[in-house]
Amino acid sequence: MRLRVLGVLSVLCLLVVFLVSGTILGSASRELTQEVQINRVASLNRLAQVAFDAAGDGDTTRLQREMDTYSSLYGEGIVVRLQQATLSSGGLSDGRTDVRDALSRTGLNVSDTALAQLEPFGSGSELIFRPFGSASQVLGGVVLEVDLDTARQKLGGRWLLVAAAAVVLAAVLLLAAARITGWVLRPVLRLNTAVTELARTGRAGRLPEDGPPELRELSRSFTAMARTVSDSIESQRQLIADTSHQLRNPIGALRLRLDVLQLELRTAREHDAADNVMAELERVEEILDGVLKLAAAEHRASEDSVRAFGSFGHRSAAGPVDPYPVLQGEVERAIPAAERAGARLVLAPPPRGPMLVSCQPAELSQMIAELLNNAIKYAPGATVSASVTVARNAVAVEISDDGPGLSEQERTLAATRFWRSPRHATVRGTGLGITIVDELAAANGGRLVLGTATPHGLSARLEFSVAPADSVPGTGGLRA
Questions:
Q1: What residues contact 237, with CB distance under 8 A and at least 6 apart?
Q2: Which of 186, 258, 199, 188 is nearest to 230 (CA)?
Q3: Most buried pick, 228, 233, 332, 353, via CB within 10 A?
Q4: 304 and 406 co-located in one domain
Q5: With bands split at pLDDT 50, 70 and 90, how would you rate the model's confidence at 59?
Q6: Is residue 397 over pLDDT 60?
């Protein structure tokens, strides 16, 4: 947007400079042309008057002297045709075709004293001429060769001066356009960033009040609206977290009462009913744990996004941490659960040289544990592979299985709260695991990508940027 607006303003500025410069240059050319023309016409008229006197008394001495003096001073040739003779000076001869044509036209009582408008480039001279005589008879004609080279040099100097001024003016206008564009668009870009953050996280920092008055008022209005929306969302999250936490006490009391009640039961039917109630109670506890984890993950994502917005793109660094040891530890902890489900865990060898990522180690462990638990739970009897791969400047922690997997539409919905595939309706779960992983990945500057494993199954990739070299304490770069 900035480049588009700046491009339009730059074109307009250059167009204004071009028009103003063209007007000034045209005016300078016309002014200098008129100046030369007035001077030469005055000289032509004076020579015509002397020639008229010479035609009257028959003495051409004074006329020839005037012509030689003019040519020596200005370096311009003159040809005067009288009835009795033709005089010339300055090297101009009536043998030239253009001079003969001019003298022929003076014989027809035609004069031409106009000069073409001067241009700074080019060379050569022009002829001006006029007849002289009485009211009823043309006695002769005067042809003057006007040398325009000096005038062209003078005009060229003026053009260079105007061109230099135009370059300076264009630079000033372009700089002013850049400053004005930044002044106007900076609040708009900040507002766009704030709207994006508000839509994604429900929170946005306070916008600086700068730019035009209308945009300052818009920034104030947006800040007030964002604060209201953020407070409302935060209250809802806090309500969910408080409710989930407060429900633990009555649920714990219910579990204790059920344990006591089971001691008093006598029949198998009564024991089955108590077991069903206990299973539902455990499901409620699992859902509460999931909701608490999700609330914490969303809070982390919101906090990190607000910090990034407040510093305009700077994300707070976490870690750095080598993901492979974390992955190895979680795989070892998941082996008992995999054995109970009949699944097989396969840990790929570490990549060549540890690659560090900016991520909270505890949250990376939580994300990997959730993905391993999902693979074991929803692909029983499958082979679950875990690996760390490096591609360009990205590090990926991948958990894949060769189970039934999910369709493309199901993968799109997988990160939705409480969503579960219809095929897994009989499998115990809350539908919050993938959502928690997605929020935690975003909070640490990464992302969760769900895809299809080869030849079949589900692939879950946690992708992070490689931690910058200066983020590793006590080293000049990453380990090799």
A1: 295, 298, 299
A2: 199
A3: 233
A4: no
A5: confident
A6: yes
Stretch 128-135: mean pLDDT, rounded? 88
Q: Do residue 341 and residue 283 come from a single domain? A: no
DSSP string, 412-438: HHTTSTT---GGGTTS---S-HHHHHH
Same domain (yes/no): 299, 352: no
Residue 253, in any domain of the structure: yes
CATH value at residue 85? 3.30.450.20
E strand or H helix that includes residue 141:
strand 138-147
Write out the H or E segment, with its range, that includes residue 132. Answer: strand 125-133
Per-chain mean pLDDT for the chain: 80
Residues 366 and 387 in one domain: yes
Spell out where 9-96 has E strands.
78-81, 86-89
Instruction: Clarify whether residues 39 and 121 are in a common domain.
Output: yes
Residues 6+ away with beta carbon under 8 Å from 35: none
Please check whether residue 102 is in contact with residue 146, taking contact to mean a CB–CB distance below 8 angstroms.
Answer: no
Q: Give residue 420's pLDDT.
A: 78
Token pair 């900040």 is found at: 190
Encode pLDDT of 349-378 as tens digits.
Answer: 988 866 788 888 888 988 999 899 888 888
166 located within any domain: no
Domain of residue 248 covers 213-310
Sign of CA dihedral 398, 401, 402, 406: negative
- Confirm if 403 and 378 have CB atoms less than 8 A apart: yes
| pLDDT band, very low/low/confident/very high, at 302 (cuts 50, 70, 90) | low
Give yes or no for a contact between 198 and 222, defined as CB atoms under 8 angstroms apart.
Answer: no
Count of domains forming the chain: 3
Domain end point (choices 310, 342, 364) = 310
Q: Which two tokens stand for residue 34?
A: 């008129």
Report how far residue 242's alpha carbon sits from residue 35's, in angstroms, rounded to the nearest whole number: 93
Please check whether residues 279 and 352 belong to one and the same domain: no
Query: Which residue pairs, CB below 8 angstroms and at least 24 apart, start in 147-150?
Result: 147/74, 147/75, 147/76, 148/36, 148/115, 148/118, 148/124, 149/123, 149/125
Does 346 reside within a domain? yes
CA distance 290 to 13: 60
330 and 431 together in one domain: yes
Same domain, 346 and 293: no
- Which regions of 330-452 does DSSP assign to beta strands (E)? 344-347, 383-391, 394-401, 447-452
